[in-house]
Amino acid sequence: MKYLILIIILTCSFFSCDKNYLKNKDNSFFIFGKVDSISDNTKVFLKIQESNKIIPLDTVYTVNNAFQFNGNISKPEVFGIFIDGIKGSIGLFIQNDSVFIDVDENMLSNSIIEGSELNDKYLNFVKKSNEIISRTNYLFPLFQKARTENDVIKLNEINKKMELIHKENTTFVLNFAKSNSDSYIAAFALKTLLNDKSISADTIASIYNNFSHEVKKGDFAIEILLHLESQEALNNIDN
């Protein structure tokens, strides 16, 4: 990747460090992961998300129950860390800062990530959105039962409840994007609504226009802009 110069340093002396040592001394990112119980030389993969694609960046090996990645990025990025033999992945949204990961070997997505304020905001947004959406979980078996029984009244009732939950989440995401216009997470949040036909292009555009200059340079904001331009082109054809 042209924006990423990835430098991997694996030395025995490194693994004597702890969280207090992880301070960003230059314009680079530093990821240190601690795994309580894992064999040496286990592969750890660093991948990145670009335009909804997962792209491999590099591979390191565990030493003394730990691993590290070090490099430089020109703008905040979404990283994924995958560990050979363990299901799932660790997702993190960071810029050039230092991050410590206490790896949960039973469920990688539950790993504790410290050191990145940007990632904290990202996780907080995802958590609150998921809490809203998860309220539809109990409705799905009821929906299947009503459909099997061809109970139209019950189906309509369940659909209305789902629509209300969906609307609540949409409102949360829009408000988050509006009130965090100087954060890359706002662009990430707004991008999740691009295919939502209940949201007008004007609403998306008004929130995008209030993003800071730095946020507009990020990948998610660029995708929003391209979406808006494509919508405008379609409208011109229709007219």
What key phrases describe this protein's structure?
239 residues; alpha+beta; Immunoglobulin-like; 2 domains; 7 helices; 9 strands; 40% helix; globular
Rg calculated over all Cα atoms: 21 Å
Strand count: 9
Note the beta-strand portion: 15-25%
Mean pLDDT comes to 85
List segments where confidence is low: pLDDT < 50 over at least 5 consecutive residues: 1-24
Order of helices and strands: EEEEEEEEEHHHHHHH
Whole-number total of structural domains:
2
Major sheet size, sense and barrel closure: 5 strands, mixed
- How are the strands of the largest sheet arranged? 1-5-2-8-9
Helix content: 40-55%
Helix and strand content put the structural class at: alpha+beta
Shape: globular
Distance between the termini: 41 Å
Number of helices: 7
Protein described:
By secondary structure, the protein is α+β, with helices and mostly antiparallel strands. The chain folds into 2 domains: 5-115, Immunoglobulin-like; 124-238, no CATH class. It is built from 7 helices and 9 strands. It has a 5-stranded mixed beta sheet with strand order 1-5-2-8-9, covered by helices on one side. A 4-stranded antiparallel beta sheet has the order 4-3-6-7. Strand 6 (77-83) and strand 7 (90-94) form a beta hairpin. The relative contact order is 0.10.
Give the secondary structure arrangement, pairings included.
Elements: E1 5-7, E2 29-34, E3 43-50, E4 53-61, E5 66-72, E6 77-83, E7 90-94, E8 98-102, E9 112-114, H1 117-133, H2 139-148, H3 152-179, H4 184-191, H5 201-209, H6 213-216, H7 219-238
Parallel strand pairs: 2-8
Antiparallel strand pairs: 1-5, 2-5, 3-4, 3-6, 6-7, 8-9
